[in-house]
From TrEMBL:
InterPro entries: CHK_kinase-like, Dhs-27, Kinase-like_dom_sf, Oxido-Kinase-like_Enzymes. This is CHK kinase-like domain-containing protein. Pfam families: DUF1679. SUPFAM superfamilies: Protein kinase-like (PK-like) (SSF56112). Residues 152-333 form the CHK kinase-like domain. It comes from Pristionchus fissidentatus. The lineage of its organism: Eukaryota, Metazoa, Ecdysozoa, Nematoda, Chromadorea.
Length: 420
């Protein structure tokens, strides 16, 4: 047998450091046994970190101690994103350039890791939220810390939702209500950290060039060569420069005059855990791009990833209302930031921005999965059919919402900018 590497998942985090940190967090003198191990549970799903399931194999625990047999460790890293990017042909990559771009991205991964740690610290002040328990988090910045990481409770009997599955409206309704409760918390106690004020839409444009942004969409005609998709692709390519660099989802509050709420910012299916047996919502995970914004941003994203286009279209009003009702129910007397009617308008205005932000990475993911040696040809085709249908439905609707928004009363009166 080969000895286990001291470093975990090819990062600079060592077993020695991890054991020390967990022992401190759990206030135990127990140690990891020789059968300790790690499984990479982020492979192909997480793009901004290495994520491992740690089997602790505790030895020397006091009889009265109840220690977790498994924990999840997240370590910020640009390696997964780089591997996905470089799996694509030149001209269809989001990131172009040499080694320097990945040094920049490593720095950004450390920054967003800090945001996740701060988010879980904010959650510590509330009960009943649908998020995992944090054991500890480090952010590179405190004296003596050599590696940023966050250690979370392992959600037993749960699994990720998947982009290639047709999830139910009921599952997304549960997510909508969980989001409303979290948003209410951010109105009762305003998140004070300046990091929550970051404009990720604006930063995206500073990292990804217009050429790279549009390049991602060139693969659309490769994924589906039908005449309908070729025509759709041509329309989308004309519209992309209008939305490139737009930060409306994080600035619209100043134009319309309402308070912002806490937004996950990356609520795709792979960041939602569901119960294996009941398929009910178990937890919302991955809070690395948490920011203050409009709650429908999260709802649009999870709806695009989880639902068929048909289910999404017929359930829009109900899902927005469920999220809003949950927000109001959990405010404990605090004033809601907007009415339900305003939130429905915000959904319309922000849909194209969120859809384009969703579609580019999805194209990259679909292209990458086509070369996955772990999947059979049959499985690849089944997944591809579902994913492309969701993708094309999102882009078709983005065109419709764009046209609708540009004809709206707000746009005609110059009260709102639909796209720069």
């Amino acid at each position: 047998l080969q000895p286990m590497p001291e470093n975990i998942l090819e990062t600079s985090l060592t077993w020695t450091d991890l054991e020390r940190n967990i022992k401190t967090a759990l206030k135990t003198d127990a140690k990891f046994g020789e059968s300790k191990s790690v499984i990479d549970i982020g492979d192909g799903n997480g793009l901004t970190s290495r994520c491992g399931l740690i089997y602790c194999d505790w030895i020397g625990a006091d009889v009265s101690e109840i220690l977790p047999s498994r924990v999840v460790i997240k370590i910020p890293s640009a390696i997964p994103l780089r591997q996905l990017n470089e799996s694509l042909p030149q001209g269809q990559r989001m990131f172009t350039g040499g080694e320097e771009i990945w040094q920049v991205m490593e720095g950004k991964m450390r920054e967003i890791h800090r945001i996740e740690v701060l988010t879980y610290e904010f959650f510590d002040g509330f009960n009943g939220l649908t998020v995992p328990t944090k054991y500890y988090g480090t952010t590179f910045e405190k004296e003596g810390e050599t590696e940023g990481q966050i250690c979370l409770k392992f959600m037993e009997n749960s699994r990720m939702m998947n982009f290639h599955e047709k999830h139910t409206v009921e599952q997304v309704r549960q997510v909508a209500r969980a989001l409303g409760k979290i948003q209410a918390c951010s109105l009762k106690k305003v998140p004070a950290a300046p990091e929550f004020h970051r404009n990720f839409f604006e930063e995206f444009a500073k990292t990804v060039t217009l050429e790279g942004y549009c390049g991602m969409y060139k693969a659309l005609a490769v994924l589906d060569r039908s005449q309908k998709t070729i025509e759709l692709s041509a329309k989308i390519n004309k519209l992309l420069p209008e939305y490139y660099g737009s930060s409306l989802p994080t600035t619209i509050h100043s134009q319309m005059g309402f308070r912002r709420v806490l937004v996950n910012g990356d609520l795709r299916t792979e960041n939602v855990l569901i119960d294996v047996d009941t398929e009910d919502l178990a937890a919302l995970i991955d809070w690395q791009v948490t920011h203050l914004g409009v709650g429908v941003e999260d709802l649009i994203r999870i709806s695009l990833y989880a639902l068929t286009a048909e289910d999404r279209r017929r359930s829009v009003s109900m899902l927005v209302a469920e999220m809003y009702d949950s927000l109001v129910e959990n405010l404990d007397g605090a004033e809601p930031p907007y009415t339900l009617e305003t939130l429905l308008v915000l959904y319309d205005l922000l849909f194209p921005h969120c859809a384009f932000y969703f579609a580019g990475p999805c194209i990259m993911t679909i292209m990458n999965k086509a070369n996955d040696p772990k999947l059979s040809a049959e499985d690849k085709e089944k997944r591809r059919e579902v994913e492309i249908a969701k993708l094309l439905g999102a882009l078709e609707d983005a065109l419709e919402y764009d046209a609708k928004n540009k004809e709206s009363k707000l746009a005609r009166r110059g009260e709102i900018i639909t796209a720069p």
